[in-house]
Design goal:
Number of strands: 2
Number of domains: 1
Structural class: alpha+beta
Radius of gyration: 16 Å
Strand order of the largest sheet: 1-2
Order of helices and strands: HHEE
Distance between the termini: 17 Å
Strand content: 15-25%
Largest sheet: 2 strands, antiparallel
Shape: elongated
């Protein structure tokens, strides 16, 4: 969830006109549109039916290890 997901959704929703362009151009257009229209989303997270987070967020990540990293 986050700006990456929003960009991917916008690429997937592009019509026939945009499909004439390269993947890089389509991604750039979608990323700029996502940034221009981005707003925080309300997120509620529950673990074992216990709500642990409820609030507006820009990004959420789920991992199944002690550490996580982005390259």
């Amino acid at each position: 969830m986050g700006i990456g997901g929003e960009t991917a959704a916008r690429v997937a929703a592009q019509g026939n006109f945009m499909r004439r362009f390269s993947g890089e151009a389509r991604f750039a257009v979608a990323a700029l549109a996502a940034l221009a229209g981005w707003r925080e989303r309300r997120v509620r997270v529950a673990i074992d039916d216990v709500e642990v987070i409820d609030g507006n967020m820009n990004l959420a990540a789920v991992a199944n290890a002690l550490y996580a990293a982005a390259a």
